[in-house]
Amino acid sequence: MAYIDEGAGEPVVMLHGNPTWSYLYRKFIPPIAEGYRAIAPDHVGFGRSDKPLKTLRLADHIRNFTELVLSLDLRHITLVMQDWGGPIGLGFAVEHPERIRRLVVMNTWAFRIRTGTPLHPLIEQFRISGIGEALVQGLNLFVEGFLPAGIHQREKINDIMMAAYRAPFPDFNSRVAILAFPRDIPVGDEHPSTSVIGEIEDNLKKLDVPVLIIWGTHDLAMPVLMVKARWLRHFPDAEVHLLDDASHFLQEDDPEKVVELILNFLRRHR
Fold first, then answer.
1. pLDDT by residue (tens digit) across 93-115?
2. pTM of the entire structure?
3. 223: closest CA among 146, 104, 109, 89?
């Protein structure tokens, strides 16, 4: 499992989701590393990490992340989580609450999903056998379509950025993990990962730490109503900032603002 590790002090661990990698945090790492230990892993199947052909589920990613944290013996951790980084990071956190110092929640989830809950139209297509393989592994549509659609400030999208996001996924077999994530969204009681996400949700109460919620309000996959309807039910004292110029990938839309909010939060909760 590849990871970036810069700076010294309390660890700030930044977790990406789908279909990104630690490159997503390239504008976060230098300023955070000035006063903290900035760590940004690539989940297995992404970035510079190994890309096995077998399908990985949420429990596998939690296990891999747990092994990394324990091998580095990280303590007093601030978790910065977006997209699938949320359930993965919180899956670790509820099992090791003594290692967690702060939480930063950004356009993510860690809750049960009822049968019949509508998903983003592209995600629904990716979950269909045969169609998902063609669209995600064949056409690389998660990178080419879903990723740029999740950036509100279109002028921020450029050739260098897109080349970096394409680089870890050059061919059909390198995109197995990208397809696995939308299919692992645990909708309904029968899904294999429902028990895992249920355990996480039920144990969020173990995390009695400062929480910062930063949310891009233009996110169609994870609408802003999730903040009040879901997150604030679990963390009623959380500090909340809604970014009206950002969408799902707020790290690309407004990295300077997000980093400023995180650093101020860290200073207030030393």
1. 999 999 999 999 999 999 999 99
2. 0.97
3. 109
3-state SS of the chain is: CCEEEECCCCEEEEECCCCCCHHHHCCCHHHHHCCCEEEEECCCCCCCCCCCCCCCCHHHHHHHHHHHHHHHCCCCEEEEEEECHHHHHHHHHCCCHHHEEEEEEEEECCCCECCCCCCCHHHHHHCCCCHHHHHHHHCCHHHHHHHHHCCCCHHHCCHHHHHHHHCCCCCHHHHHHHHHHHHCCCECCCCCCHHHHHHHHHCHHHCCCCEEEEEECCCCCCCCHHHHHHHHHHCCCCEEEEECCCCCCHHHHCHHHHHHHHHHHHHHCC
Q: Tell me, what CATH number does 94's domain have?
A: 3.40.50.1820
Residues annotated catalytic, as ranges = 83, 219, 248
Domain count, the chain: 1
Q: What is the pLDDT of residue 55?
A: 93
CB 20 within 8 A of CB 162: no
Whole domain around residue 177: which residue ranges? 3-268
